[in-house]
Amino acid sequence: MNLPFKTKLLLLLILMATGCSSMQMGSSGAKTTATGSAAGAHAEGVSPALERCDKPLGTVALAEDVNAPWYRTLNEYKLGSTAPVLRLLAQQSNCFVVVERGRAMDNMMQERGLAQSGELRQGSDFGKGQLVSADYSLSPSITFSSNNAGGLAGTIGGLFGDKSRVFVGLAGNVNFRDASSLLTLIDNRSGVQLAVAEGSARNADFGALGSIFGSSAGGSLGGYSNTAEGKVIVAALTDSFNNIIRSVRNYRMQNVEGGLGTGRGGLQVQPY
């Protein structure tokens, strides 16, 4: 696509202004809605949009269904597990104390095995009864879609005719990425679902900028496309996490006449 030199220069300056031309630690353009850090009850750099609690409601473990279709879609986008995102959100919110039930559990059990075999130093204190139970399980589910905004290109072409071909090329590569997520909170002792909340987010990705400067620039922007997909999923998870916190703040226990799970529920079937 041949463009006037001034146009190329202007677009290059736009890219440079957004931080694409240099490495920046802590760049705001690279951050998601799950940002900052947490240590115990202390948190720094927390997104102002994140809901917080005055005190923890209990301990929680993250549980992902790695065999679900949505999880395989994440792998296709090279986005990996959502657990680190949810861990950060949960601890920063101070609504839950997070306990490990993931891959690090193997290392924990390895240390206990070394202690039992006598390989660890005296006083290492890896005896039984040290692990904290998980009161709740938090389970995510994600729906992700990417729709090309081809209609936008047609609108621009109709308004400006042949002179619009450059902008039509850009508009034809505008992708609106939508993500929605569900978070489910389960009581581990009873197996009862305590709360469930939906969240959603949308992000627009202008994927055609790279083609203006040739293949080398286009290749460098390919990684940003993946980052945009990741950001919209993180935003959707943050939204659903906020919604579930708003719900549990006003939690009211469900009561079933005759007892919960005793076979005497209100919806009966005809007996023998």
Largest sheet: 5 strands, mixed
Strand order of the largest sheet: 4-3-5-6-7
Portion of residues in beta strands equals 15-25%
- Oligomer state equals single chain
Query: What radius of gyration results from the CA coordinates?
Result: 25 Å
Number of DSSP-assigned strands: 7
Residues in helices, as a percent range: 25-40%
Report on the architecture of this protein.
By secondary structure, the chain is α/β, with parallel strands linked by helices. Helix content is 38%, strand content 19%. It has helices at 5-17, 69-76, 83-93, 104-116, 150-160, 165-171, 209-212, 215-249, and strands spanning 37-39, 42-44, 59-62, 97-98, 136-148, 174-187, 193-206. Strands 4-3-5-6-7 form a five-stranded mixed beta sheet, with helices on both faces. Helix 3 (83-93) packs across helix 8. The radius of gyration is 25 Å and the shape is extended.
